[in-house]
Design goal:
The chain is α/β, with parallel strands linked by helices. The protein has 13 helices and eight strands. The chain binds 5'-deoxyadenosine and FE2/S2 (inorganic) cluster (FES).
Length: 329
């Protein structure tokens, strides 16, 4: 296992890149195999009460047209995704208080009747909310820590608290969710040392999924003039995470593909074993603009499903047809 100083050296030393990527790929193959899990992503509301300085959905971005998808329409996308072979659906949104327990619990129950696993990614909620979602049948929850550097966290997340984020992660674990976290790479004032701490934090908490993506500046945010994160550095962080947590699920993130036209395939060959294609239609896709130049904004669910399958097959891998839980080794 890598120590903090070893992680820092690996991240700083470019001559290690090729070794690192191919070693992560070997570990991936040994522990989670050649099957790639697809998770169908439903971005059901872009309304958000938060003001995270990097995010295009932030409350203060008044230029964005906001939408909420009704439960019936969400269910329609869910059914279509299941017919396309998805075994996991991810319901993601901004932090939108409209979606109370009263709305989400029946929706979760309906989706769970479709014989799929269900992941929620809807931000910080109370223990009671999480408990209600879990009891309704939700299997997994994604909430990135974004950065473990407390000063940076504070600077980037006005009116939010790092402690509450930790509380969410710990509540979710207590309730028996599979818990996913992750971080952004290349945030302004983020150091290599703090990224090493992020990796150690993931290891310590033994999360079931970790998503890592490069920071991409959005024009309608306070970070519009900041430097973009590095694709290579994000990939290296992902590879180190695979080596340190060999049996977890790691997505090839959409943000990686935004910075490199072959980003998801490169990620799949450097430790990743999950892809999360969008399963909604284009009227919503372009409005879920967390960062600019998101991929697939003019596509439809069928197109993405077959596109990604072809890409995955082209590197000798196959699509998994099981639910894709973490199998602890
Ligand atoms: N660039 C890249 N990723 C971003 N996210 C939010 N804003 C950006 C951005 N500008 C990521 C966050 C969040 C996830 C849904 O999207 O890490 O957790
Ligand atoms: Fe959407 Fe390729 S995954 S077009």
């Amino acid at each position: 296992m890598f120590s903090k100083s070893e992680i820092i050296n690996l991240l700083k030393d470019e001559s290690q890149n090729d070794w690192l990527f191919s070693y992560a790929d070997k570990i991936r193959q040994k522990y989670v195999g050649d099957k790639v899990h697809l998770r169908g992503l439903i971005e059901f509301s872009n309304i958000c009460k938060c003001t995270c300085k990097y995010c295009g959905l932030r409350y203060e971005n008044k230029d964005l047209k906001r939408y909420r998808i009704s439960s019936n329409e969400i269910l329609k996308y869910a059914k279509n995704a299941v017919s396309l072979g998805y075994k996991t659906l991810v319901l993601q949104s901004g932090e939108d208080s409209f979606y109370t327990q009263e709305i989400l619990v029946p929706l979760i129950k309906e989706i769970k009747k479709l014989d799929v696993t269900l992941t929620l990614s809807i931000g910080e909620r109370s223990f009671e909310d999480y408990k209600a979602f879990r009891n309704a049948g939700a299997d997994r929850y994604l909430i990135r820590i974004e950065t473990t550097d407390r000063n940076l966290y504070k600077e980037l997340h006005p009116n939010m608290s790092f402690e509450n984020r930790l509380r969410c992660l710990s509540d979710l674990r207590k309730l028996g969710f599979e818990v996913g976290s992750g971080c952004l790479i290349g945030l302004p004032n983020q150091t290599i040392e703090s990224i090493a701490d992020d990796i150690l934090f993931f290891k310590e908490n033994n999360f079931d999924m970790i998503g890592v993506g490069p920071f991409i500046p959005h024009p309608q945010t306070p970070l519009n003039n900041s430097k973009q994160g590095s694709f290579e550095l994000a990939l290296k962080v992902m590879a180190i995470i695979r080596i340190m947590l060999p049996d977890i699920n790691i997505p090839a993130t959409t943000a990686m593909e935004t910075l490199n036209p072959n980003g998801r395939i490169i990620a799949l060959k450097s430790g990743a074993n999950v892809v999360m294609p969008n399963v909604t239609t284009k009227e919503y896709r372009k409005k879920y603009e967390i960062y600019p130049n998101k991929i697939c904004i003019n596509e439809n669910p069928d197109k993405c499903r077959f596109c990604i399958e072809n890409k995955i097959k082209s590197i000798g891998r196959t699509i998994s047809n099981d639910y894709g839980f973490r199998i602890k080794t």
